[in-house]
């Protein structure tokens, strides 16, 4: 019997150890049961309206993603569903790829294994769609890749769900582009022909995202303040205070 089966909503706090992450989709924290550590994805602290309108749907979808990917090396083991507001998964003792510098000590084969892991996830009819955030990729203690946080994932649909299938193909290419960009950033040497092809491709959704980011930076107060601070360029192309 899995020791985490004894965990319920009413006794969850007695096992709680530490908060390790979180965002608009909920909190992630560790629990310890009989000396074994696991991670909990929990939205119980979010506003009830969010939980009812969106949170529980997203959480249930992420739970189904983990179910569909069980057995793949590099995917945390799913332990149990606590209730509609939380579930328990394996805690991976790894380091987020985002903490490594560009020339960090990551062997080149890590990226080949990462690409293979993403391919096997796609073979299960799932796309991650948020690999551009390198915190969702962990480097394990033996240098093996792990994927976490499937809150933005997308399932492949049947042949008659044309719009959903279009979105799936878009997100699938976004996954491939993200892996190629990561490999190009970290791995020494020239990118492969496949990576060059992926780097040259930009999906419709990526183009829309670029437009949104441009407009956001153009009109938000924070970025307007930064532009004013830099000041206008002189004819020589140098701003105030330039040497």
What does this structure look like?
The chain has 243 residues and is an alpha+beta fold. It folds into 2 domains: 82 residues, Phosphorylase Kinase, domain 1 (2-Layer Sandwich), CATH 3.30.200.20; 117 residues, Transferase(Phosphotransferase) domain 1 (Transferase(Phosphotransferase), domain 1). Helices cover 40% and strands 19% of the residues. The chain has 6 helices and 10 strands, in the order βββαβββαββββαααα. The strands form 3 sheets. Strands 1-2-3-5-4 form a 5-stranded antiparallel β-sheet, with helices on one face. A hairpin with a 2-residue loop joins strand 2 and strand 3. Helix 2 packs antiparallel against helix 3 and helix 3 crosses helix 4. The N and C termini lie far apart (69 Å).
């Amino acid at each position: 019997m899995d020791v985490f089966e004894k965990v319920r909503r009413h006794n969850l706090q007695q096992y709680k150890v530490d908060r390790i992450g979180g965002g608009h989709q909920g909190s992630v924290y560790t629990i310890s049961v009989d000396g074994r550590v696991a991670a909990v994805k929990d939205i119980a602290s979010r506003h009830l309206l969010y939980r009812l309108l969106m949170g529980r749907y997203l959480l249930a979808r992420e739970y189904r993603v983990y179910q569909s990917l069980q057995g793949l090396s590099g995917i945390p083991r799913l332990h149990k569903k606590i209730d509609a507001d939380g579930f328990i998964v394996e805690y991976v003792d790894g380091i987020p790829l985002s903490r490594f510098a560009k020339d960090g000590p990551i062997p080149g084969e890590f990226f080949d294994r990462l690409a293979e892991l993403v391919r096997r996830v796609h073979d299960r009819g799932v796309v991650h769609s948020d690999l551009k955030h390198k915190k969702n990729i962990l480097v394990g203690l033996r240098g093996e890749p792990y994927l976490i946080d499937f809150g933005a994932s997308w399932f492949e649909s049947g042949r008659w769900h044309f719009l959903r299938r279009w979105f799936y193909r878009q997100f699938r290419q976004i996954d491939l582009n993200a892996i190629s960009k990561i490999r190009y950033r970290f791995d020494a040497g020239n990118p492969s022909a496949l990576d060059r092809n992926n780097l040259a491709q930009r999906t419709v959704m990526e183009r829309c995202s670029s437009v949104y980011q441009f407009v956001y930076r153009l009109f938000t107060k924070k970025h307007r303040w930064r532009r004013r601070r830099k000041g206008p360029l002189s004819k020589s192309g140098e701003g105030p205070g330039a040497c």
